[in-house]
Design a protein that fits this description.
With 91 residues, the chain is of the alpha+beta class. It has one domain (2-78): 2-Layer Sandwich (Alpha-Beta Plaits), CATH 3.30.70. It has 2 helices and 5 strands, in the order βαββαββ. Strands 4-1-3-2-5 form a 5-stranded mixed sheet, covered by helices on one side. Strand 2 (31-36) and strand 3 (42-48) form a beta hairpin. 26% of the residues are buried. The model has no long low-confidence stretch (mean pLDDT 97).
Length: 91
């Protein structure tokens, strides 16, 4: 199992990234959350088996069709205690 906190920078707000990430995380069986940050980036916590988390990270490097990801900063995190993946309010 792997849990990571992500900060995703670039053109990631206003392009459907959060909804896309909820769909992809759910498809992969990854738990956690995603939210917009005031600085224009996205923040997420992803938790699941290592292969699924790494696949979600690979997908996030491209993002949805209109996104332009310039950087993803990853840090290890404590596991997310709740099942499912959801959107949280602005940080």
């Amino acid at each position: 199992m792997a849990a990571k906190r992500l900060v995703i920078a670039g053109r990631v707000q206003g392009v459907g990234f959060r909804d896309w990430m909820v769909r992809e995380a759910t498809r992969l069986g990854v738990s956690g959350w995603v939210r917009n940050r005031r600085d224009g980036a996205l923040e997420a916590l992803v938790d699941g088996d290592t292969a699924s988390v790494e696949e979600l990270l690979r997908l996030c490097r491209r993002g949805p069709r209109l996104a332009e990801v310039t950087e993803i900063v990853e840090d290890l995190s404590e596991p997310w205690p709740e099942p499912g993946f959801r959107r949280l309010p602005l940080a």
